[in-house]
């Protein structure tokens, strides 16, 4: 088992995450991927927005930028363009990346800038206390949806494929080995890579929706058929889903991959490395 | 070698930025600032820099901060509505101490207002646009040549104090062509890099001048940058003593160096008994009005701040001590006049000549102000 302590700022602990939150599993899986790829620790930059997921970067011993709500892909764009030798990874959440920051995410994907975005989707706003998110399943309860969510939700991967991301994958926080592999694949991909991690929020989503604690929520993310997972949340609220909504079930693995020109900004042409 | 060129203010801004070492521009099209972006995209590649047109002004400012953390001198340019959108990230740059330059070519507001009309309506927004207590450094050129000088100065101040610096001029200066002598080289200030080993490096431990040394991402120093209130390790804290210390240091970086930052032009003030306070394009009209008034025997003068923020309290107070009246002329409904009143402390009569109809304040209008006062005094 890979020892990831050399990639952690232990002096910054204890962390802010709640008991049962799977975000720590995601961080570990990422650090193992960095170790597997043998990246130069001094040349890795993590860029985050605001929210529970975004706080992860503070505990990781790289150059870490904890920016503003939703804007991490824009910070990362400036960082990567100004210093292309950096491996730039954005760590964001579903509210951060898909609500307030949706515009930046789709434009970074459209440009195909060579960064990786890891989006931790826990279906709710955790840091602010359990408000409804653009990923909250229809019918699910949140502090700002006391009668159940009346909005349709985003499929982040479909959105990113549509926006032009050249690598799109989805994985469950319950499957860390697959998560590490997909993160390594994403970071190795030349161009914009997007990895959605289905995580949990026992403190708010779980409590409001009687979905159980962390362990129950993660085991609820059980694999069904080949690469398709059914999160507990979707199972519970399937009866509330309008007929136009997509069927419950989450496809995992690499959903899209293509080679296309990588955006490097408007700059003097350099000899192509290939 | 110096060369003379007939160029617009926006072109001068771009040329100065590159001369000052700017190697990154992120921006979004908006009238009347767009000419700066159109120049930067042409100038930066040959200078070894990079240009990106972002998806909006929020992203532009974020990209500028990212580039600056990666070690590049970075700039964006915008106008009115875009400036409003940048405010959150200007505050971020203050808090995280990220040097960068923001040019705001002012147009008529509020809201979409009059995109092609001049205004000085963003003077207070430049000071207080972002939330929370924070320092502000804002420079106001009044000619194409001064756009060049003050844009260079903006980069140097940003690097020296690790803080965002705003260059504020208006549509007239942005689009006017003037003959400008471009210097062959300019004095350039670069941010101080740390001289300790990475293991000993604390990213927010200040040097003697209150400014922490700043490595770039990728230099071998691994550190955290956040907009949250933080300690000297750069890590979030909720400790009130550390919060107070950070707030004091951020503001004192500027407050303790007001003498170094503030520039004021005094024109024909030595024997004046009436003064015009004007800045930016209005300074041009004020100068002409003062010269004409002098031919009529009126002892008029002008005080023109090139630095709007920090406000030149001492210089304004000195003029207030001397003159019978100070006419504050600005293309807004009264923004800096309140500061002039505060700095003057009741020592002289303050008269506003204010205009926010999209038209410039003319020399004739200011001359009339001077002659009317002169006749009333007789």
Mean pLDDT of chain A: 89
Question: What's the Cα radius of gyration of chain A?
Answer: 18 Å
SSE string of chain B: EHEHEHEHEEHEHEHEEHHEEHEEHEHEH
Please state the oligomeric state of the protein chains shown: heterodimer
Number of helix segments of chain A? 9
The CATH architecture of chain A would be 3-Layer(aba) Sandwich
Classified by CATH, the class of the largest domain in chain B is Alpha Beta
Question: What does this protein structure show overall?
Answer:
- The complex is a heterodimer of chains A (about 270) and B (about 375).
- With about 270 residues, chain A is of the alpha/beta class.
- Chain A has one domain: Rossmann fold, CATH 3.40.50.
- Helix content of chain A is about 30%, strand content about 15%.
- Chain A contains 9 helices and 10 strands.
- Chain A has helices at about 25-35, 70-80, 95-100, 100-110, 155-165, 175-190, 200-210, 215-220, 230-235, and strands spanning about 45-50, 65, 85-95, 115-120, 165-170, 195-200, 220-225, 230, 250, 255.
- A 7-stranded mixed sheet of chain A has the order 2-1-3-4-6-5-10, sandwiched between helices.
- In chain A, a hairpin with a 3-residue loop joins strand 7 and strand 8 (about 230).
- Chain A is globular, with a radius of gyration of 18 Å.
- Chain B has about 375 residues and is an alpha/beta fold.
- Chain B folds into 2 domains: about 5-180, Rossmann fold; about 265-375, Rossmann fold, CATH 3.40.50.
- Helices cover about 40% and strands about 20% of the residues of chain B.
- Chain B is built from 13 helices and 16 strands.
- In chain B, the strands form 3 sheets. In chain B, strands 2, 3, 4, 5, 6, 7, 8 and 14 form an 8-stranded mixed sheet that branches. Chain B has a 5-stranded mixed sheet with strand order 11-13-12-15-16, sandwiched between helices.
- The model of chain B has no long low-confidence stretch (mean pLDDT about 95).
- The interface of A and B includes residues 47 and 86 of A.
- Strand 2 (about 65) of chain A pairs parallel with strand 10 (about 225) of chain B.
